[in-house]
Design a protein that fits this description.
With 180 residues, this protein is α+β, with helices and mostly antiparallel strands. It has helices at 6-17, 45-55, 61-69, 89-94, 120-124, 149-158, 175-178, and strands spanning 22-26, 32-39, 73-78, 84-86, 104-110, 115-119, 131-134, 143-144.
Length: 180
Amino acid sequence: MKEGELIYNTLEGLKKRLSNNRLVVQGDRGFVCEVEFIFNPPATVDEVNAFCRRVGFELPKDYSNFIQMHNGAKLFKPWFGGGVELFSLDEIIENKLDYMPDHWYPIAYFIDGGYLLIDANKCKNGEKDYLIWLGSFILEEAENLQINFEIWLDRYVIAQGEKYWTWKRYTVHNYYKTHR
């Protein structure tokens, strides 16, 4: 599979499972709920190019493919709040906060806290592991997820909207202390 193709397969597979843009998922501790998916219309190639000129770097191929399919989305949105909002091109600019380094661009916000960011320096250098997880306002706690957007999205869908990249923090020694 070539870079940028997984995004199509992931989204098409997900959409086949949806009924009225909804899906029943099971989360941790046996919690079951119905979640909603909202997909924005696509961005045009001209809009993507204008965004790239504005920010001064080329979007990675896989992420650009996503934006040209859906210029943003809300995924795994339960009725009580939660899920993730994948930003449109305009929302990326609007959500860039002053404390974020200049070369980090937020592409998603998790309703229960945290940002997914693109490291533009890694993109400029041709590095494929450009996604950053910023789970708090403390920059020193930011984590390079060592993956690109399409692999992140594929795993996020498989994990049914759970923050799978944080699971390694929960061992048998601390799980029961943090999940009461």
